[in-house]
Amino acid sequence: TPDGLPVIGEDPRLSGFFHANGLGGHGFMLAPAVARRAALAVMGQPTGLDPAQFGPGRFLNGASRAAAERLQLG
Question: Which of 13, 22, 52, 68 could be disulfide-bonded to 7 (CB atoms 3.0-4.6 Å)?
């Protein structure tokens, strides 16, 4: 992703379409945590993730930050 963070959450352009990608080389390690949060999002429950930081809508405003290798687990 342009900002180096995964994309987790519902796409604001297509209701009911959820993303859980952009993990880079960390996918195998992060898959259980991401899958749990993606499942919670699909069920409409709180995920504990900041949608502004991980949601796909963050790319809609046209601003992109420099690529960085940053991940936040919680």
Answer: 22
